[in-house]
Amino acid sequence: MSARFAPRAPDPARAGIGLRTPHFEALAGRRPALSFLEVHSENYFADGGPSLAWLERFREDYAVSLHGVGLSLGSADPLDREHLSRLSRLAARIEPALVSEHLCWSSVGGRHLNELLPLPYSEEVLAHVCERVSQVQDMLGRTILVENVSSYLRFASSTIPEGEFVAELACRTGCGVLLDVNNAWVNAVNHGTDAREFLAAIDPATVGEIHVAGCETTPAGLIDTHGAPVFPEVWALLEETLARLGPVPTLVEWDTNLPALDVLLGEAARADAVLAAAAGARRRAAA
Amino acid sequence: MKPVPALASLQARFADAVLDGGDERLAPLLAGDPGVNRRRLAVYRDAVHANRRETLRGAFPVVARLVGEGFFDEATKGFGWRSPPACADLNRYGEGFPAFLAAYPHAAAMPWLADVARLEWAWQESLMAADEPVLDYAALTGIADAEPEGLRLRLHASVRLVRSAWPVLAIWEANQPDRDGTPAREEGTDDVLAWREAQRVRLALLSPPEADFLEGLGRGLPLGEVCAKMDGRDFTGMLVRLARHGMLGGYSVEGAAKA
Q: Which domains does chain A have, with CATH numbers?
């Protein structure tokens, strides 16, 4: 009898990277030390083929995080059962350490915009999203992490600050928070709010993962492109956040203008240093 | 799920503004400066189109190269308008793009373009087809000897056949990243076989009788019946080739499925 495969858990003292197809071979050849690899769940929804085969190979060496971009958690439509069952099948096959989705909507009335669109933050919407997160967690048989998104528009009907909305969602459903520090900063700049106020509203015990990424400055505001190095302001916010939270699995995301693997690993090494400093400060404080 | 009419109405107006243009009905629902909001709405509008265009570029790289940047941008915008994504998984977006190109007036000067797109979509389908065991050469010879009557062979899930009145394989090959775009042949009616072997999609040219034979197998006809239509041609070599390259998925004999 062969030993059952044991899925790996992320090492909170190290950073991970988003896994993208052009890096498969380089990563498999070098197997750098990384806490975990994160993939967009939908890219592995096929019934077979090379992408799934690669992911099955990588899960032998790394903890895996399934990060969904298509569940449309905040849509007024009923939950997409087919999408959810594909996610459920993938999770059963890959046994990920983490499963996450976005606090947003991307489809309504059967129309698919395939984009992370912002929600109004009201009591009605909070109750709606809580119900759906609970349904998803029941269907998957596990808790999920929900990520704060970047937004370029806000709604007049929003009555709850974003940080409180996210905190309350976690409190009511038991879901974790995927705290995207870049998104917090993008929103603060775009809407003239305070990123630190947002971050302070989140209960540290609920944060299961952190994201950092690069964005783009445009005349319309900051656009969350995931296509550039992490901004200095975001590194500073990450330092403050990890000093408060202690080490949490931290991921560097890069999706457009994808650089060579080395550049991405360089960003991950920088996040490693921030994580190490946070761990060191904790040890000193405890001593 | 409790209905959320206010949210449904807000999202419907947002989707209208992003997909159909205009922001008159959305603007009153937004907070902040209207001028800034108009520019920010355009960010979402551009992102939705760019996602679709780049998804299609990923699936149809040869079409994108053949038509050039401006044409591809316009064509994908028109296709997005006519056939928006039907699900949240963009990897399945693009099935209708070859038919769209076939009827696209601006592509009339490139009558082979839609067939190149059909070949690229066949490549995509083959790439994403289910993993399943193959019926290998040894197994094939065993059953072919023992049960020649009523034997039906099933093609592997990754096998696709594209039949074209144009030299589409030559055009496809000439427009791979390391080639200058000049096809090795300018004549030909290509029947192209696509399949996945060792997790790579492969393409091969078939003769018209070989393509007929493969089509017959694909329709689930008994092997004897497929061969009978072939004017006495011997397809042993073709069967060996199919089996050796993992293009057979299983067989059945008079209704009893095997493998």
A: 15-286 (3.20.20.150)
Size of interface A-B (CB pairs under 8 A): 149
- Cα–Cα dist A23/A9, whole Å: 22
Exposed / middle / buried, residue A113 (Cβ in 10 Å: 0-12, 13-18, 19+): buried
Angle at A33 between CA A30 and CA A34, to 5 degrees: 115
Helix (H, G, I), strand (E, B) or coil at A111: strand
Instruction: Name the minimum distance, in Å, from the CA of B244 to any CA of chain A.
Output: 19
- Is the CB of residue B50 less than 8 Å away from at least one CB of chain A? no
CB A243 within 8 A of CB A272: no
Q: What is the pLDDT along chain B (259 residues), one digit of tens a residue?
A: 788 999 999 999 999 999 998 889 999 999 999 999 999 999 999 999 999 999 999 999 999 999 999 999 999 999 999 999 999 999 999 999 999 999 999 999 999 999 999 999 999 999 999 999 999 888 888 887 777 678 899 999 999 999 999 999 999 999 999 999 999 999 999 999 999 999 999 999 999 999 999 999 999 999 888 888 877 788 888 899 999 999 999 998 875 666 5
* Chain B, window 192-211: residues with a beta carbon less than 8 angstroms from a chain A beta carbon: 196, 199-200
Domain formed by B129-259, architecture: Alpha-Beta Complex (3.90)
In terms of CA atoms, which chain A residue is nearest residue B16? A111
Q: Where are the domains of chain B?
A: 129-259
Rounded distance between C-alpha atoms, residue B22 and residue A116, angstroms: 20
